[in-house]
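Appendix B. One record, verbatim.
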Amino acid sequence: MGIFDGFLGHGSNVDPVDLQKRLEGVLIDGETPGLAFKIIRDFFVFTQHRIIVVDIQGMTGSKVDYMSIPYRSITRFSVETAGTFDLDSELKIWVSGADLPISKTLKKGSDVRGIQRALASGIIRP
């Protein structure tokens, strides 16, 4: 799956050129981004080996934190959809060795089912 082929849904408004630029030097040889979902300014990328959470910090966005989560270290995850009064969805990923989950709030209209499928596909491999 190529960089332009995997984008889907409302949560995937990641500019492919910006994604390529942001992941330069982060991906290992042979690793390719499959899906990318945007969360306001931040985004996360699903590759065949891991999830890369890109946290763009500061007013100018020049400071960037890259968190790499190998699928094998994910013990469980939760995707909560938006409700009538709570308009945001929430993603929680528990990683072995950590007591608290990694939590991300997803804006209304994010493709929570696509995120759920991408996580399940990475974790539950044949």
